[in-house]
Amino acid sequence: MASPSQQLPPGWAAQWDANNQRYLFIETATGHSQWEVPAQGPAAPIDARSTSPPSHTAHTKRRQYASGQTQAYYGTGDGFVDPQYGSAMPPAGPQQGAQLFTPGLAAENQFAAQQQAQGQQPPYYQPQGEPEYINAPGYGQQPAYQQQQQLAGVTDQFAQMGIAGGQKPFSLYTTNLLTAPPDPRELLRPPPEIRLPPNACITTNPLANADPSYQRSTINIVPTTSALLNKSKIPWAIVITPYRSIKEGDQPVPLVTDTVIARCRRCRTYINPFVQFIDGGNRWRCSLCSMSNEVPQMFDWDQERNQPGDRWARAELNHSVVEFVAPTEYMVRPPQPTVYAFLIDVSHAAVSTGMVATACRTLLESLDRLPNEDGRTKVAIIAFDVALYFFSMPPGTTDSSMLVVSDLEDVFLPKPTDLLVNLKEMRASIEALLGRLSEMFQESHTVGSAAGPAMQAGFKLISPMGGKLMVLSSSLPSLGPGALKNREDPKILGTAKESNLLQPASAFYKTFAIDCSRAQVSVDMFLFSSTYQDVATLACLPHYTSGQTYFYPAFNAAKSEDALKFAHEFGEVLAMPIMLEAVMRVRASKGLRMSSFHGNFFVRSTDLLAMPAVPLDQSYAIEIQIEDTLTAPFVVLQTAILHSTCTGERRIRVITLALPTTSNLSEVYASADQVAIATLLANKAVERSLSHKLEDARDAVTNKMVEILTTYKSSMTAAGSGASAQLAICENMKMLPVLLLGLLKNVGLRQSAQIPPDLRAYAQALLTSLPSQLLVPYIHPTFYSLHDMPPEAGTVGEHGVILPPPLPPTSEHLKRHGLFLIEDGQTIFLWVGRDAVPQLVMDVFDLSSYEQLRGGKTTLPLLDNPFSQRVNAVIAKTREMRRGPYYPHLYVVKEDGEPPLRLWALSCLVQDRADVMPSYQQFINQLKDKVNGSSYS
Length: 937
Ligand SMILES: [Zn+2]
Known about the structure:
Blueprint (H helix, E strand, L loop, with lengths): L11 E6 L4 E6 L5 E2 L13 H4 L3 H20 L8 H5 L17 H16 L21 H19 L13 E3 L38 E3 L4 E2 L2 H7 L4 E4 L14 E2 L19 E3 L4 E3 L6 E3 L6 E2 L4 E2 L12 E5 L13 E7 L2 H5 L2 H12 L11 E7 L3 E5 L8 E5 L15 E2 L4 H14 L10 H12 L4 E7 L33 H12 L2 E7 L7 H4 L1 H5 L4 E3 L8 H16 L3 E10 L3 E7 L3 E4 L2 E7 L5 E7 L7 E11 L5 E13 L2 H6 L3 H18 L2 H23 L11 E3 L5 H10 L11 H11 L4 H8 L2 E4 L10 E2 L2 E2 L17 E5 L3 E6 L5 H8 L10 E2 L8 H15 L8 E6 L4 H9 L12 H14 L4
Parallel strand pairs: 6-29, 8-14, 15-16, 15-20, 20-21, 21-22, 35-37
Antiparallel strand pairs: 1-2, 2-3, 4-30, 5-7, 7-27, 9-10, 10-11, 12-13, 14-29, 16-17, 16-19, 17-18, 23-26, 23-28, 24-27, 25-26, 28-29, 31-34, 32-33, 34-35, 36-37
Helix pairs in contact: 8-9, 8-14, 16-17, 16-18, 17-18, 17-24
Bound molecules: zinc ion (ZN).
């Protein structure tokens, strides 16, 4: 039957009657209702306000969104972001008249507007300034220039074939790595633009295609064949951060509340901005499989206002990221409540270092921050050392009683009720318990850890519902199931056997993880040991249950910095909203297949990823294969995460990404996203280091770079397969070698016989879960010169504190009289040159001379002088600008101070030579030799 979106006479509303499966028409003034469509009165829209396309507001919003987005995502101040980045958006399209959906008409208007918008959009990748391009006119590289012209000819021809329509081809700018040093500002650029053919998208909304902070692809134009993709040597994957945090200035994800969910009946794709409406708007053609589907009857009905709605205003047709409230058929049970079981180590090591006191205090202070909008959140506290201590909190009292279980082999719950209690109802009991827990075990001299049995107990307690196990542990689990042995052996560090230490030592952790995943239980690990704790094995649980590992080696709360860091990060994790009982699946256009999955989850069936709890800002990489030749001008990838919110609602978050296709290799290169490639390769390298050797993992990274460079040279430059005095790569991949060099030098992969296995394992956990925004500094640290920073740096600008311009991470920039900041998102170093003038030392540290300054973990004083305030502002901004719960420690490093600390700081300057690892220049030369000497063609 006809949808009531067609115009009704003034004063009439239509209401879907589910019992009769038809519309009831109501005269709103009189309340009279009838089944017949009321006679058409004067042709006027019912309510111009609700039906006019949101073109104006949408563009205004976009303006704010884009700059906020760029700002928050790249985490920069307005100090060094090219203002052009934020403003590279299409101008507002022509104003459309207020109208209801008229088949054909509205869409045509929108297409026209889109074409116009595309035509005026400046390319993202316009090179800044006048860099030297090998193939730029006048450079003297005649053969290369000619080739470029030929390529341009090919693309013109391609465009004339009508495949690309008016789509602008990507221009390939080739640069010579030998003479073009990497500029860290390049890393702040957005990925190459996605240039869809006209008419690909049914909306002009600039938010219709994926925001890279949610989903980005290693290539932004897809080769039509697997052979062409293989030829490029660029691995194709999407990097997904589906549950990205919303920072100030970010737009929240639009929510579709009417439970009208249009999905393709063949491939189950959710309706999105890249479908086509056909049959007078009554059907839609799936953008993945081309199936023609019926438009649901209520699709054009505004349930909130109870009147016809504007189809074109629906969020799922305008936004790449959207969330649906799911109806009951998406539930196998009512949405679970948010449940936390805190498993707190109370052995001597845990109590004496102040971990227990800090944890209890933070938890106590964070009770209001725990997600609990629906009042259903449940909490349990279990303490453990060589036994398990349960706390029963019966209703009607604020007292709790402790129940001790010392049978560790066959763990049981000592009481069927009152161990897991409602946070709101039992708030007083929980507060009282947290207030005295640390004291209760103050005198403990117990050594040993029944962490495994504690986790089994926590599992027994929460598995009927699902939820989070938060394990806070200060030593190696030594008792009961899951007990581990100290396998740290300095002799095998740096040898082929080292990777054994990075694999789980006991099958318990894998099988327990699978049990957890099945029962919707996710594990977070907070680890504090001063000695070997086997992080590699323990991190297995968060890895397979979509949790996270946090590591505070040699934690000591007597150092206020240690207490502050842990309290901050634990507090952030507690306050974090989480997606519960989630499953994620990526669907893609016909001819594409998800081939491998990287990140913290468990692959339940071929492509269904089970995630008992999705934390904010965790990243996943999924590789894609081209199985059949792609004939469509663009392909669509759609990630859907079915989950329960921590407010008890079942929802589906859908992220849609459309990418154009090409048969032109140069376009593939020109569209490559070096940051996404580095993110994928970090994941793959860590996995390879576990299945093979660390050395193999490093070789694989280098070989991938060599393959790309070799193919690029032979197919995109005049040198072909012959030797070349240059090392050519396209401008948009110019930072890839330095990113990969940084990856090779990261603690997780670095060639060294000195890295404790726990530190390595923790670094690997970060490399495989950090979103690109945090991963980039983690492998390519940020380096600022502070003593001579520009006057505006460290002051507050339009977008918060202005940061100094970043320097390339090499000690060539260190000055003996200077003050520098080096940071990787996890640790901040304040480097003080040995000839620092007394005034600088006085201004920053309140000390009369460099000699009085002591290196190490510190809290910088905030002094009554502008320089101190600016330095403090830069540090504060560095700590808060990125997503994620991390609160980096600050270390003061004296140029002539303790060697281990100096070396640690210097190891962040990844362009320098370090031990056996090459400098950037050496690395580039090695790459060049391999490219010239290799047999690829
Ligand atoms: Zn379909």
